[in-house]
Design brief:
This protein has 16 helices and 14 strands.
């Protein structure tokens, strides 16, 4: 089978982004299929390609995957209008490639939602099977966050969402809430598979020297957040907690925020203004380097803004990276991840917008290191037995393969 795979934010383990698409594409290659990945321009060699762009793209082979990287840069620091323009431009360029690249099945994964259009065109104009993977519910999330208020834009996004879901032969949701959201748009449950994000145990169990940022003492409790610094992440709640800890005189608890995004400059300015020296900001760290920091970390922070649509409608990469590294998780919103944490005793879930409860949880981790280690062991056990990437990738691959509607080839034995 020839799979045309569209993911604007594709990244390899050498980059800093999530590597779900890399791992899934590699699994298809291992199963004997050919995979062509269409992606946008990443940072830090994220796609695995190097060299100049020719006529707006460059092409090469990365670990058995044929990668076509479109010369459209994207950054979490970009404003809304610039990001929207990048999404639309990528949609148009990949839509053209749908008519020139040979393939048997087209697979597209959000975000952005606009990657659904190439799949729709392939389904109805080329009559090719289309599999659509939904990582976030749009336009529900931007509407709930108040990021998009224009009724015409919301209507257009809703129409694209409906058309993408109804055009796809198969769908994949990354969380229970996403599956429910797809069903609410009229898609039968038997056309949807739940395949959450997974744990890259081979990466996080690899030999790596533990390291910590300058200024952190060996005896400090180190809590880390590794991810985007955007509106959706609600990282002001972490600064609120840092202020509570400072007032309590808990200088033995340090928080490190790793990543970039449009809110980062404002967060750094606030921390400086309020003298929150117990918080440290780091630039984006490649996943291969992040492993050593995770080996030193005591707690992983799973933080989102208090938006009910997030409770069951997200499947954050960072949560699965934390538990793959055996790091207990401190979560600040209710939902399916909070339920997992409580059921498996692999961290602490606190109510949203409650800096005192957040601070209390960090103090518990700091004062009871035996509990912290036990929760870390439970986190790793959960990663191994419920979210190992290998097992999830097999489920994913079988579901994608089932969309191939060509007659099975007859194999003639030499016997």
């Amino acid at each position: 089978m020839r799979l045309l795979y569209i993911h604007q934010h594709f990244a390899t383990p050498k980059g800093s982004g999530g590597i779900r698409s890399y791992q899934m594409a590699r699994r298809m290659v291992e199963r004997g299929h050919s995979v062509t990945m269409l992606c946008g321009r990443g940072v830090d060699g994220q796609s695995g390609l190097s060299g100049p762009f020719t006529r707006g793209h460059r092409r090469g082979r990365v670990d058995g995957i044929d990668v076509i990287e479109v010369d459209l840069a994207y950054s979490n620091k970009d404003g809304f209008l610039k990001r929207t323009g990048t999404f639309l431009a990528f949609m148009l360029r990949t839509s053209r490639l749908v008519f020139t690249e040979p393939y048997d099945v087209l697979f597209a994964t959000t975000t952005p939602l606009t990657v659904g259009l190439p799949g729709i065109l392939g389904r109805w104009l080329r009559r090719k099977p289309f599999v659509f993977e939904v990582r976030d519910l749009w336009p529900e999330l931007p509407r709930a966050m108040g990021v998009i208020r224009n009724p015409v834009v919301l209507w257009a996004m809703g129409l694209l969402e409906w058309a993408s879901y109804r055009s796809a032969h198969r769908l994949i949701g990354l969380s229970p809430g996403i599956v429910e959201g797809i069903m609410h748009r009229g898609v039968p449950r038997d056309r949807i598979a739940l395949v959450p994000n997974g744990c890259d145990l081979d990466i996080f169990s690899s030999a790596a020297e533990p390291w910590q940022p300058q200024g952190i003492r060996d005896t400090d409790l180190l809590a880390i957040f590794a991810g985007a610094h955007g509106i959706a992440n609600g990282l002001d709640s972490v600064l609120d907690t840092a202020a509570v800890l400072r007032r309590r005189g808990r200088d033995d608890i340090r928080i490190v925020l790793i990543g970039s995004g449009m809110r980062k400059a404002a967060l750094v300015e606030r921390a400086d203004r309020e003298g929150l020296h117990n918080i440290l900001f780091l630039d984006t760290v490649r996943k291969t380097e992040l492993v050593g920091l995770f080996k030193r970390a005591d707690v992983g922070l799973q933080i989102l803004a208090n938006v009910p649509a997030f409770y069951y409608g997200t499947s954050p990469n960072k949560f699965f990276d934390y538990i793959a590294a055996g790091v207990p998780v401190l979560n600040n919103y209710p939902g399916w991840l909070a339920e997992l944490i409580e059921t498996h005793d692999c961290g602490i879930a606190v109510p949203p917008a409650n800096a005192d409860a957040f601070a209390d949880a960090l103090v518990r981790f700091a004062d009871d290191r035996a509990m912290t280690r036990r929760m870390g062991d439970n986190a790793f056990h959960l990663a191994q037995h419920s979210f190992a990437r290998d097992a999830l990738a097999e489920d994913w691959a079988e579901w994608v393969e089932s969309a191939d509607q060509r007659p099975a080839r007859r194999v003639v034995s030499d016997a």
